[in-house]
Amino acid sequence: MMLGVHVWLTAAQASTTAHLKHHAIFLQNSLIRLINVPAQVAALYFLWLTLGTNTLGGFSPQALLIYNLLTFLVRWLFNFRQVAEDTERAIHEGLLVNNLVRPLPFSAFQFGKVLSKLAVNILALLLVLIPTLIVIGQVPSASSLSGFVALLLIGAVVQYQLYAIIGLLSFWMGRIFGVVYAFDLTLLLSAGTLLPLTVFPSQVASVLLALPFRFFAYSPVQALIGNNSGLWLARELLGAAGWALALAALHALLWQRGVKQYAGAGV
Length: 267
Hints:
Order of helices and strands: HHHHHHHHHHH
Number of strands: 0
Helix content: over 70%
Largest sheet: none
Distance between the termini: 32 Å
Structural class: mainly alpha
Mean pLDDT: 77
C-alpha cells in the first residue's frame, strides 16, 4: 500500500514538474517575442526621422530600390533558420544518438547540407541577379561580383554558426522558437535586410557595423553596388573570417558541454 502511494506521488511530482517546466519555457519564449515590439517601433522611428531629406542613409530612391531588391534575394536564398530547428528536433526527439555514432560529427553532417544548398543558391542568385542588374543599368564589374560572392560565402558560414549555436541552446532551454523568432527579427534590422545600416543614427550604425550580422546582407550588397575600395573589401573579408572562427570555437564548446548531459531519449 505504502509502495503504491509512493509510486503515485513520485509520478504526480514528475508530471507536475514537467508541466511547470513547459509553462516556464512558454513564458520565457513569449517574453522574448514581446521584447521585439520596441525594436520594430524604433526602426520605424529612425526611418521617419530621415524621410525629410532627398536621400535615405546616403541612398537615392532608385539606389534604395535596387538595394532592397538585392537584400530580399540574398535573405530569401540564404536563410539557415532550418539549422536551428533541425538541431532542436535532433536533441528532443532522440535523433542525435544516430549522429553520435557516425564517423562524421553532427556539425559536419549539418554543414555539408548547408554547403550543398549554398552552392545551388549562389548559382540561382547569379542567374537571376546579373541579367536584372544589366536591365536596370547597374552592370557589375568582375571585382565587385567576386567580392559579392566571397562575402556571401563567408557570411553564410557565420550565419550557419549562429543558427547552430541557437539550436544547441535546446540542451538547456527546451524549445527555442522564441529565440529563433527574436534572432530572425534581429537579422531583419541589423543585417541591413530591411534598411541600409547607414539609415540609423551614427552611434547605432557604428554598433551594428561592429556586429557579424552585416555579413548576411549589407556587406555583400555594398560590395556589389557600392563604390568601395579593395581595402574595404579586404577588411570585410577578414572581419567575416574572424567572426566565423570565433563562433566555430563557441559552437564546439557548447556542443561538448551539451552532449555530456544528453540522454538518448532527449533532454
